[in-house]
Amino acid sequence: MNWLQIVAHAFGMSTIEWVAVAFGIVSVYLSVRENIWSWPTAIVNVSLYVYIFLNAKLYADMGLQVFYICISFYGWWNWLYGGENRTELHVTRLPRRWAVVLPFVFVAGAAALGTLLSHYTDASVPYADASLAVASLIAQYLMTKKALENWAIWVAADVGYIAMYIYKGLYPTTFLYAVFLILAAMGYVRWRRTFEASRAAAESHGEAG
Questions:
Q1: Hey, is 100 helix, strand or coil?
Q2: I need a surface site. Which of 5, 134, 135, 147 has the fewest CB within 10 A?
Q3: CA pseudo-torsion sign 125, 184, 68, 143
Q4: What pLDDT score does 86 carry?
Q5: Please, are residues 79 and 39 in contact by the beta-carbon 8 Å criterion?
Q6: Taking the CB of residue 150, how many other CB atoms lie within 10 A of it?
Q7: Is the pLDDT of residue 6 over 70?
Q8: What is the average pLDDT value for the chain, to the nearest integer?
Q9: Residue 120: helix, strand or coil by DSSP?
Q10: DSSP conformation class of 58
Q11: Which residue has better confidence, 161 or 53?
Q12: What is the pLDDT of residue 9?
């Protein structure tokens, strides 16, 4: 019996879920504020959700949490050193070509993963689970790059997750994603202001030069 199973047995599954909820809210709030501590708190959050989703038979989401653990370490490093000359990374916008590439990646990824889950596992809602997992993968990758558009994708994904978790009876997690939805909208507004202020400053500096 591993440590998560011991905790679950001692305190009940809902306790683990609420602890994960707390770390998740703190992590996303810190992301909105571009605070580097969003990444270590995210690692704790997603580690707990590996166990939660395994028990709920949401295998795409479980695998997604494993990916999150890995990419969170990358995001942690990239926010610190991914800018020009290994400096702090700043908010950016995606190139226009990504508007064509990302929808294709989403559709292909969701179809492939949904098919695998449907045929080879006892996943509860394979295609919904897969679609939301792929959307989240895309959004999280864009988050590590501080791309403004990550928040727009998170808004759409959070709406879908709220519906799925209500269906599965994961009510603390439903609450978490309702908070995520609000924070994602706030993140988009805040990061857009940051980006526009940075661009205006750069243009002013260029004119002065």
A1: helix
A2: 5
A3: positive
A4: 87
A5: yes
A6: 24
A7: no
A8: 87
A9: helix
A10: -
A11: 161
A12: 56
Residues 6+ apart with CB under 8 A from 201: none
Could you give the CA distance from residue 202 to residue 208 in angstroms, rounded to a whole number?
A: 10
Q: Provide the domain count of the chain.
A: 1
Mean pLDDT across 182-198: 95
Per-residue pLDDT tens for 126-162? 999 899 989 999 999 999 999 999 999 999 999 999 9
The token duo for 203 is 């243009």
Q: What is the torsional sign of CA 63, 7, 27, 24?
A: positive
Question: End-to-end distance of the chain based on CA atoms, in angstroms?
Answer: 65
Round to whole Å and give the CA distance between 190 and 33: 8
**Residue 5: predicted pLDDT:** 55
| E strand or H helix at 189 | helix 171-208
Contact 194, 146 (CB under 8 A): no
The torsion angles phi and psi of 121, rounded to 5 degrees, stand at -135, 175
Do the Cβ atoms of 8 and 19 come closer than 8 Å?
Answer: no
pLDDT at 64: 79
Q: What does residue 170 show for φ and ψ, rounded to 5 degrees?
A: -95, 75
What are the residues whose beta carbons fall under 8 Å from the beta carbon of 150, sequence distance 6 or more?
139, 140, 142, 143
* pLDDT for position 124: 85
Q: Report the sign of the C-alpha dihedral through residues 152, 124, 121, 112, in that order.
A: negative
